[in-house]
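Protein modeling request. Please complete all fields; requests missing the sequence field cannot be processed.
Requester role: graduate student
Desired output: 3D structure, token encoding
Chains: 1
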Amino acid sequence: MKESPEYRGLFTALGTLVLFSCALTAVGLGIARAAIDSFVELAKGKTPTLSQSSLGGRPTVHADVARAEAKVQSSRAFLFEVSREMMASAEAGQAIPDPLEARRRLACVNAATSCEEAVDAMFRLGGSTSIYTGHRLEQCLRDIHVANQHLVVSPVWWEKTGQFYFGLGLGMP
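Delivered output (173 residues):
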């Protein structure tokens, strides 16, 4: 399929770094989704050692899963909102304004951090079952930490985005 000039222009307008950071952030969202789903499935059938109730029957577990869901879903919504605004700007032939670029960076680092926290929580809740090589929660833990090692979702973006709000510019590209 031949690439249309319209889309080549949109992708060029947004830039490789922007597209890659949003794509990597989306991977993190998928990993977090898999971790939550995997844990819920595990918890439905697991009765921890020395326990008389199932893991999935515990109110504290319900609350922890709800917190993880809130982190993932809210960070996803923020990323999608910013992505739509960036596409609208690019489609209008406008450069991405600095306040929107700051929001994009913030959305990416927020999603990366939130997803890592959600995966870490599901891994811990899974107990010793989670630690075995090949278990889905072990894979999710490893994958989210590997993805979040990349510069485009580095915690440095908290600082760089924060400095923008103090009138100090965007900092690194």
